Amino acid sequence: MKNKKSYTPHRHQRNIPTKKLLIGLVSFALFGLVAALALPHLSSQNNTAVQSTTEEKLDLSPPTAEDKKATEQNKDDLAKQLDGQNKEGTTAPVAPVDENGKKQAQVSISSASQNNESVRIAAFVSNVFEEGGTCSLTISKGTSTINRTSEGFQNASYTQCTPFTISRSEFATTGSWTATVHYSSTTSAGKSTPTPVEVK
Length: 200
Description:
Layout: H1 11-57, H2 65-89, E1 103-104, E2 107-114, E3 118-125, E4 134-141, E5 144-155, E6 158-161, E7 164-167, E8 175-184, E9 188-191, E10 195-199
């Protein structure tokens, strides 16, 4: 009777899983080693970049002589610029003139009031500041007209007309009358817009 040979698996079949495991362990160890070596270098670069950025943004060192000189120069330039703007801003606009070469006076009637015996009308010239001009009042209704004149005088920063006072008896009828004030001097001339005056 022949002897039966027992079956023995080949060695290389048992070794395959062991080799794969060893290769994996070695690869993982190499990766960890590389990461451990590279991490301090990357951290150092990041810290350097952050420090560099901070130093660029925050310069707490005392100003140098050149910095002080540049600051003073900027102050001088700004002062000159503002001075030029102020001069331009305070330049008075040129007032229009009439056919006689006189400045156009801006005349306004400021008030019109009446008591039992008289009517009082006040006017001024806003853009003229002088003495000696003539203010002329014309107040009318229909065919009835009343004229008065007064002298202009300096008042604060404008020319005030001496107020006009008209006796109530000079008005032919009651109701709404229309008043206009003219101003004239050697340099200026103009008139107000017609203003209603109620006479009772």
